Each structure stands twice: as C-alpha cells, then as structure tokens.
Amino acid sequence: MGVAVLALLGAASWGIGDFLGGVAARRIHVLTVLVGSQAAGLVGAALWVLASADSPPGIEDLLPAIGAGACGAIGLAALYRGMAVGAMGIVAPISAASPVIPLAVDLVGGTSPSALQWVGIVIVLGGIVLLAREPGGTGSAALAAGVGLAVVAAVAFGLFVVGLDAAADGGVPWTILAVRSTSTLLALVLAVSAAVAILPPARLLPTILAVGVFDTAANVLVAFATTRGSAGIVAVLSALYPVATIILARVLLGERLDGTRRAGGALALGGAAAVAAG
C-alpha cells in the first residue's frame, strides 16, 4: 500500500476519532476522555506487539516515540477541548496546520518535495485556511472560541509526526506501544493531579473506546506511511482529517458549511491529489 493511501486512511481514521472525542468532551471532562481513549489504544498496541514477536528497539528509537506520545496527548487534549467549546468546523481545520513543522524539519534535513508536491502543499494549506475562516468577517476566525487551543494542537501534532517518523524505523508495533504508553501515563497523571474522574459514565464508554480505536488505527497507518515516504508529505496528507470531522459535524450535529468552507474542502482534496501524484 502506497504512502499516500496510508496517510489518507490515517487522516480519515483521525477525523472520525476526533469527532467522537469532541462530542464526548462536550459531556464530560476532556481528561476523562483522554485517559479512556488512550488506555483503549494501549491495550490494542500491547496485543499487536505480542502478536508481532518483534524485538524491542534501541533507546535511540524509543526516545522519539516517547516524545511523540507526550506531544500527541497534549495535542488531543487541546483539540478535544477546543471542539467542546468551539465549532468543530473551525477548530479542526486550524489544528491541521501541523505540517508546517515536519516540512521545516524535512527542509533542514535536505529533503525537499517535488515541484508538483509543493503546488499541492500550497493548495492543501490554502484550503485549510479557507476551511478555518468563520462565516462573515475577515478576522473573526482569530477570535472564534477554541482557536487558541487549536493552535496548540497544531504545534503538538506537528511535533508528534516528527517523533513518529524518527521512531518508526525501529519497528512500528513497538513505536505505537511506546507512544500509547506515554500518552496514557501523561493523561492519567494530569487527571489525578486535577482530581478529575478517570472512569467515564457507562453511557459514554462505547464512544470513548471508539475514540481510542480510531486514534490508534490512525497512528499505525501514519507510522507505516512515514517508513515509506517523507514525513512532510505524510503530515500534509494526514492533515486532511478535518474533512471527515467537518462532514460528521454537519450530518450529525447540524453544523453548517458556507460556500467558503466548501471551496476550502475542494481545494484541500485537490491539493492532496497533487501531493500523491507528485
């Protein structure tokens, strides 16, 4: 399976998981959502490691995986909380500006996308900008609820992809286990420190478990993608996850998309096609 397909499947899985996480965070504390979803993913990762029978990687691979796990937890907490207090159709696309960080890392390392891929990247990011604009004003998106949290999520997600790329060559199953172990432990420590309930209400348990499943599946797909192509390209394609989130928010929550956001979605998808073709 090609890098573009893996990254886009990861984006779809992330989009679904983020939508479910945002819905859950509107009903219970975001740290409760994070603990439950990350723990569910940890169980799956541990079973995968046992089934793979791979040897543990060296410390040089585990350290970036641990860093990725910490960044991932911070990013998800910021994103879920942002979508709980603001419109998902605004918060999710802003958080998708994360490819700027791994692309910069790629450039520093001497890896540059092709001309067509540069065009695709510009189109994708332009589409994200249009998606992020609030209807009616030129600067209102900067004042929209949850935007600050979305920016934190974008930075954290960009660092997450960089760490995942650095660790994945040491073995994807162990990388995901290290990522999930770190994010679960961090979420647990934060929840206990804040005196937040760790166990969610029974009615929300299936939703939170589903968040963990989709988020972990996305991590696996993106990790495999980084072993087959540039981390910057993977980051741009996987940043299309807001498309799935926005569609679900429109269909299930009634959030409306204006013409600008519809155009942004079309640009983002067209740019992704150019990136994949390059």
Q: For this entry, what is the oligomeric state of its chains?
A: single chain
Number of continuous helical runs:
13
Average pLDDT score: 82
Inertia-based shape: globular
Helix percentage: over 70%
What distance lies between the first and last C-alpha atoms, to the nearest angstrom? 16 Å
Order of helices and strands: HHHHHHHHHHHHH
Please write out the topology.
Elements: H1 3-25, H2 30-52, H3 59-85, H4 88-95, H5 100-108, H6 115-132, H7 140-143, H8 147-168, H9 172-193, H10 205-226, H11 231-238, H12 241-253, H13 259-277
Helix pairs in contact: 1-3, 1-10, 1-11, 1-12, 2-3, 2-9, 2-10, 3-4, 3-8, 3-9, 4-6, 4-8, 4-12, 5-8, 5-11, 6-13, 8-10, 9-10
Structural summary, described in words:
The protein is an all-alpha fold and 278 residues long. It has one domain (3-277). The chain has 13 helices and no strands. It has helices spanning 3-25, 30-52, 59-85, 88-95, 100-108, 115-132, 140-143, 147-168, 172-193, 205-226, 231-238, 241-253, 259-277. It is globular, with a radius of gyration of 18 Å. The two termini are 16 Å apart. The model is unreliable at 138-143 (pLDDT under 50).
Which descriptors apply to this entry?
single chain, mainly alpha, 278 residues, 78% helix
Give a brief rundown of this model.
By secondary structure, the protein is an all-alpha fold.
